[in-house]
């Protein structure tokens, strides 16, 4: 059961590597992070996970640019692993979740050619006896706890395996109005936590993206982690205010049934 992997999130790539987002080069930032991963932890991790928002405007051209940049060898089964080659990582396994910016049809067409497009990508995979449950709360800014997503979560946990839950949308409040308004389905979000709490012993942690911010919280005894994006990052104000900060990726280690993490900071 002992292994490590890396989480990255929220890349918002454009139709070309030179395209900017708010005057910021998302492609340059991704390359910086991947180069740092390859140099510092690449030899001791089993795989990478991206928790969504691969592109900013979900056109076919943007996804082709994403696949070309990562030299992605498409696979048939979502969420992967697909093999990527980028900045020192050679044919390296990587899993992908869709985010609210990702068009589900384009996402599947370009990354998972033989998997029929799903309106919600609720899927799971196993690695060395640990189950990774990938939950989809939709393509809108506002997360929705769809009944099929909650049903999939409960059915997956009933398998009794130690589990890591992966989501794009954040599952705990951030403490500011404009981010926390993204999860409007408060009643069903409580159902999510009621299900997770019921299987608390086997849930090692919840990893998310979406808010472009690194955090570590505990809810109902379960560790919950978010991650600073490779795209522009906000500060905690009640209105969106983006700034330039060092990039983050999260090294996650599972050893003897315990999940621990370490944040690596990458200068721009």
Automatic annotation (TrEMBL):
UniProt GO molecular function: hydrolase activity
Database matches in Gene3D superfamilies: 3.60.21.10
Source superkingdom: Bacteria
One Pfam short name: Metallophos
InterPro entries xref list: Calcineurin-like_PHP (IPR004843), Metallo-depent_PP-like (IPR029052), STPP_CPPED1 (IPR051918)
The Calcineurin-like phosphoesterase domain, residue ranges: 4-213
PANTHER family in alphabetical order: METALLOPHOSPHOESTERASE, CALCINEURIN SUPERFAMILY, SERINE_THREONINE-PROTEIN PHOSPHATASE CPPED1
Protein name (Swiss-Prot/TrEMBL): 3',5'-cyclic adenosine monophosphate phosphodiesterase CpdA
Organism, as annotated: Tengunoibacter tsumagoiensis
